[in-house]
Design goal:
- The chain is mostly helical.
- The chain folds into two domains: about 5-90 and about 100-360 and about 405-520, no CATH class; about 560-605, no CATH class.
- It has 21 helices and nine strands.
- The strands form four sheets. It has a three-stranded mixed β-sheet with strand order 5-6-7, with no helix packed on it.
- α2 (about 25-60) crosses α7 (about 165-175), α2 runs antiparallel to α8 (about 190-205) and α8 (about 190-205) runs parallel beside α11 (about 245-265).
């Protein structure tokens, strides 16, 4: 192992620890129903959502790489700690249920070691080449603007893709306050992966009775088993780059797992996490707001149902916790809407349904052109909107291409496993007591509604698999996870065992599939651009200096371009990728104007 990778792992661990501290008040509310380890999971995801809302709010008024942003984070941390202490004092000591906090099952060491190897490989990848095309197109620019400026009015006039509203970019910008500085963007996708892996580990070590009867555990393990090879296959694209595809996928999977846990356990703690993580995923991918709305609908329907096992019971968990999670998602949505209005003058840009009466609003034609091209490329990369948006000729080639995609194939494979497992569980239950609603058909139908809604929204907006990796995996992982619970309850070998044969087999897949492929990919240099020379960079991490060999991002030629108002911007030469140059635009636009004396005042267009 080398020190830079360990330093990255430490950074991720500290970030997750900060999230847990920010959400500790939520964990304290949940602890009577979830136990100590479950409370940590609640703290992690509610804290993650709170941190995201925080950087969105601060970014509206201050640069995120600034003393003011750091001071605000310190104040928020103190307030969160005070809230935790207040909740603990009011609730008093939580009575135990007789279960031990940590499991004594030796077998969990195997999948946990596999997860640690995956985490190390992800940390190792962040110093490699950054190969995501969109990172050069607009990711890095968006992050850099958030680092150095408050939200800039009319920034989308400079480049329409800069109007894309991705909350995680603000997290990456805030990370520039750490010793990683401008290279902090390399760590943000891996941070989401680490959060997902941490959730799995916490589930595995939980010693409370019935932990392995939570289908969310199987859903997470199976979905991550399918996702990890795909991530490690192209680490420069999916891990070193601040890819919204990766980040949205992880949180979407987590939201789906907790939704199923909420449906089968009737515990409000898991309802709160399902709502918070669904909102977090939607803050990264706008299309996921459809799945978020469907998640709320499913939870409401389940709450109104009076049947045990498919309704959210009134005695479990805390109403305050659910209300806080919902408020957190709503606040994040409002903050994103405000950012939309400031960046582009439209809500849900590049949609042109809700204009905002501001002088920097992006012309409707430019917004519509951006939206049409995104949809067109997702359908057929070889034709333009005038062809792809006016007929269905592309459907056959799109289907054959999409089915061959790793994430779609993995989701279909999990679905096949789930169907077989359901059949086996039904055969195994013949002559026995009718199964409970845990893993039953009503739960399956309710659980897949948000996933189906998310896939439908994806298909009718921009059906490129990368926009819906999480939902595509959940199509198979949810039925397969519920089938695992059915087998757990019915298979004779599982009776009296903890967690049983099914748990061993399901989690062992991660070690058998992910680790060999990951090691193989870590040794591969296929992604490294030709004639690329790594740079030796040093990072002062407290008293320790970390020396890393880093593949730098490309530095394409940028020409100076003078606008009619006399201001100068950069203009790409030979392509449309600006990479980290600020300010820069991919195409000449003589209608562009500065609204004031500098970039901070924003941009507008004439005519």
């Amino acid at each position: 192992m080398n020190a830079p990778s360990l330093a990255v792992l430490l950074t991720w661990a500290l970030a997750l620890g900060w999230f847990c501290l920010l959400g500790a008040w939520a964990g304290a509310l949940a602890r009577p129903a979830t136990g100590v380890v479950g409370a940590v999971r609640v703290s992690l995801w509610l804290g993650f959502g709170l941190a995201t809302a925080f950087v969105l709010a601060v970014g509206l008024v201050q640069p995120l790489r600034s003393t003011a942003a750091v001071v605000a984070a310190a104040v928020l941390t103190v307030l969160a700690a005070a809230a935790w202490l207040l909740v603990r004092r009011r609730r008093g000591a939580s009575p135990g249920d007789g279960s031990r906090a940590l499991t004594r099952s030796w077998w969990v060491v195997v999948p946990i070691l596999a997860l640690l190897v995956v985490a190390y490989l992800a940390a190792h990848a962040v110093f490699g080449p950054v190969t995501n095309y969109d990172t050069g197109l607009y990711h890095l620019n968006a992050i850099q603007y958030a680092q150095d400026y408050r939200t800039i009015p009319g920034l989308a006039n400079l480049h329409t893709r800069l109007g894309t509203n991705v909350s995680a970019f603000n997290l990456a910008a805030f990370g520039a306050n750490t010793p990683w500085g401008a290279d902090a963007f390399r760590l943000v996708a891996g941070l989401f992966v680490m959060a997902g892996l941490a959730d799995v580990v916490l589930r595995m070590v939980d010693g409370r009775a019935g932990t392995w009867r939570r289908p969310g555990t199987y859903i997470l393990v199976l979905a991550l088993t399918a996702a990890v090879p795909g991530l490690l296959h192209a680490p420069g694209y999916r891990l070193a780059s601040p890819s919204p595809d990766t980040m949205a996928m992880i949180v979407t999977i987590v939201a789906g797992a907790y939704l199923v846990d909420a449906l089968v356990s009737r515990q409000r703690a898991w309802v709160a996490v399902a709502v918070a993580t669904a909102g977090l995923a939607a803050s990264i991918r706008t299309q996921v707001w459809v799945a978020f709305a469907a998640t709320l609908l499913v939870l409401v329907v389940s709450a109104l149902r009076g049947r045990r096992g498919s309704a959210i019971g009134s005695a479990a968990g805390s109403r305050t916790l659910v209300a806080a999670a919902l408020a957190l998602s709503v606040v994040s949505g409002v903050l994103l809407a405000v950012r939309d209005a400031i960046l582009s003058g439209w809500l849900l840009f590049p949609a042109t349904y809700v204009p905002v009466p501001v002088d920097w609003r992006v012309p409707e034609a430019a917004a519509q052109s951006t939206r049409d091209w995104i949809l067109s490329w997702a359908r057929d990369t070889t034709a333009g909107p005038e062809k792809t948006l006016t007929s269905w000729y592309w459907l056959g080639s799109w289907a054959s291409r999409t089915v061959a995609d790793w994430w779609v194939a993995a989701g279909l494979g999990l679905l096949a496993v789930g169907v077989v497992a359901w059949v086996v569980s039904i055969l195994a239950s013949r002559g026995r007591v009718r199964p409970t609603a845990v893993g039953g058909w009503p739960v399956l139908v309710l659980a897949v509604i948000p996933t189906v809604a998310g896939v439908a929204a994806w298909f009718f907006t921009a059906p490129d698999p990368r926009f819906a990796w999480g939902s595509l995996l959940l199509v198979g992982a949810i039925p397969a996870g519920l089938a695992c619970v059915r087998l757990y309850d019915r298979w004779p070998a599982a009776e009296g065992s903890s967690p049983g044969v099914v748990g061993v087999v399901a989690t062992g897949l991660l070690a058998l599939v992910a680790v060999p492929l990951g090691v193989m990919q870590a040794r591969s240099a296929d992604e490294t651009p030709p004639n690329t020379v790594a740079e030796i960079r040093t990072y002062d991490v407290g008293p320790v200096t970390v020396v890393a060999s880093v593949v730098p991002v490309p530095r394409p030629p940028i020409d100076a371009y003078t606008l009619p108002d006399g201001n100068q911007v950069g203009l790409t030469n030979g392509g449309d990728q600006c990479w980290a140059f600020v300010p820069c635009m991919p195409y000449a636009n003589d209608a562009l104007r500065f609204r004031g004396d500098g970039v901070a005042d924003g941009f507008t267009t004439t005519g």
